[in-house]
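Hi C.,

You asked whether I'd gotten around to modeling the 186-residue construct. I have! Everything is below, sequence then structure, no commentary in between.
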Amino acid sequence: MANKRLIVLLECAIFAAIAMILSFIPLDIGSSFSISLGMIPMYVVAIRRGFLAAGFAGLLWGVLHFLTGKAYILMWNQALIEYVLAFAFIAFSGIYSKKIRAFLTEKNFKKAITFAWVAMFAGGIARYFWHYLAGVLFWGAYAFAGWSAQLFSIVMNGLSCLATIVVCGLVITVMMKMKPQLFLPK
């Protein structure tokens, strides 16, 4: 049992490291819109290992932003919201992990992919909710002229969230069809 826990922790660390590496691929448009390719390994670990593992891997990925100098920090509470809470809430991507793995085992790819998309939306929205909140509380000064902080944050974070889910979801869909065993731990 302890050996299995160690394997899960190591997988989380590896997937967090891969997510951080993917974060260095520049897919930012301006200072407020980006597509987060690091969510691909987060979605894999969420489906593969579930809610808690996804939360831990997300938390590790968030902390890696500090260690690599990729964090944009205005103040400690903004950093806490955007790099600890937001990334830990990726855990919600793991809500249907058992069901998805069961469908993959049965080779019912249509249902597995459908539930994977629902889980990816849940995890993406849970993460970006915190980015929205930070946008309202801390980044409102960067809103376009005539836009409120709430409107600016919901538009930019909403578009980033949807773009990230769609791009990463397409990759996950292809991966599920080509290598379903990647999502099924031994």
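If it helps when you're writing up: Strands lie at 28-29, 33-34.

Thanks,
B.
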